[in-house]
UniProtKB/TrEMBL annotation:
This is AraC family transcriptional regulator. It holds the Pfam family Peripla_BP_2. Keywords: Coiled coil, DNA-binding, Signal, Transcription, Transcription regulation, Transport. It is found in: Cell envelope. Residues 333-358 are annotated as: Disordered. InterPro entries: ABC_transptr_periplasmic_BD (IPR002491), Bact_iron-sidero_bind (IPR051313), Homeodomain-like_sf (IPR009057), HTH_AraC (IPR018060), HTH_AraC-typ_CS (IPR018062), Tscrpt_reg_AraC-type_HTH (IPR020449). It comes from Paenibacillus odorifer. SMART domains: HTH_ARAC. Residues 373-639 form the Fe/B12 periplasmic-binding domain.
Amino acid sequence: MYKSNEILLWDQATVKLLDVRHIERVQGEILHKYKIPASIFLLSVQGSAQVQLDDSEFSFTGFQVLHSGKGAILNIVPTSKNFVYYIIYYRAWIQEEDLFQSQYCFSPDAPILLYNKMQLMYQKWNEQEERLNVKSLFYQFIHQVLKELHRKETEVKQTSVAVQVITYIQEYYAEPITLDSLAEVFNFSAYHLSSLFKEYTGMSPIDYLIRFRLELATELLMTTDASVGEISASVGYKDVYYFSRIFKKRKGVSPAHFRTKESLRPKVAESPLNFPISSIFEPIVQQYINNDNHYHNTEKGELHMFKMTKSQTTAALLLCGSLLLGACSSGTGTATKEQSNGNGTVNQATSEESTNTRIVSTPKGDVEVPAEPKRVAADQYMGHLLKLGIVPIGARTFMLDEGWMEKADIPKETIEKIEDLGDFPLNLEKLTMLDPDLIIGSIDENIEQYEKIGTTVFLPYWEGLKTAGPLDKFRSVSKIFGKEKEAEEWITEYEQKVAEAKSKLAGVIKEGETVSIVQFSQKAVYVLAAKGGNYGSSTIYNMLQLPPTESAKNMAEGFESISLEVLPEYLGDYVFVYNGDADATNKAMESNIWKGIPAVKNGKVYLYGDNYHDEFVMEDPFSLELQLVTIVNLLLGTSK
């Protein structure tokens, strides 16, 4: 631990003391774990106890110092006749950001110094005119603790990020929360924060948020006469229609039907309230202050400062039933027509209600899908879907503005019908609201989340660093919808266009001459492979069958990253340059290395593309048609 850094933080921080207590526990006294409402310092002075803080356990004997940030779960079990300690509750922040969330415990070398300051703080705490003196003593206490830590180099354990996120969600659930907003609050990338949270809880932050909100809503539906609209707003859903859709998706029935029918049924094992208590969230008996204005607690023992509510109990037990809630149904244990069983296949009840389904093979196994899905959501394959006559109800943001759309004359009205579902992974709340009957996911790590919402087909876009042949990709998409015939009709037409293009290019590239494709970035030069590449390489090499260099033939992946100095060794007689980064491309072309390349001297360089917003980014049917025209025009010198 770096003492200088800690001192600097304490010097900069705004500090507010919330309470100072002296507590005596008796062996055999029944206590409960509780969630710490603020940062604490605990100093034990007499007796012994087993102290549990989140996942860590400490044996206290005599003088011990414990520190933790807000939100940790604390439990104290005396192992001697009496266990006596002092505890300080405080907040410290810089520009509204809470500090000092670290956890540590140590035996002080100078315990009497700490004890004297702690005892004085406690004695003066109830005297309003002495509060400034107490704060001064607190800073002296901190300084002594930092000196002890500096000598001992005590290991500091940071409070679990997942626990902090859970605490944040439980406090601000009624406010707009997204994965991006959580990532900003906790200073992580959205992907990294989601991974850490899922590793700790087994679910994503947004999935936890949805479940937390719905459990609170369920409690309100069962215990109050509040309207569905009032309940919706109180748990963070301003749109009551959105709330009703997401409630029905998770619970199998509408909120109104749940209130009138489900609450009358006996409790079943689907409810998290019927499961053993979670190891993460024990019933939280509030044994501490709960607002900044309550300063007094002079009686022996730690008082219950307010009554535990049913909502808080529900939140405490939420995670223990999380896996079952993902497929929670109407209360009979049988999935409804709208639900998936969690692996992308439809439950038996669905098959009995509607036999109009098909089996689709995926890398994750066979999936039963609707024969004619009406509400498709996808994180990839926009052009493939539209070419098959399928307009998705929701799609990834990037898919709504792909570079080929304007050139392919896709009507603006068509795109406006499609809901923007954000980036990878798709926004789960919006996705749930859309009530899709089929979801297409292209990234493995997102599939489990989608499966909790509806029937999901996993169709990977990339295979390692390679991409499958574009015609094979189109065939794969068509099989999901039973539209193989339509796909083959387009492929036949496209191959005819390819044959006509090859005829036009006959004789342009002489026998023995070769073609290369490169792309410049700020950090490297990328040479695309003869197989598995992107950015038009499939059109150039596979469709038009322009001859690649030996280096392009021998690449294990879809491209190879090299330095500018060795670029001449990779280039053929004709060089296509994909203009993905205009600044990097211009800089490379101004270099002496580039100017000395034979293809450059002979004027056999073809610049194409438009900063990642063109028909060469994707490999759908519309893009392939446009790519074919562009490449032919470049080689014939007829491009505009």
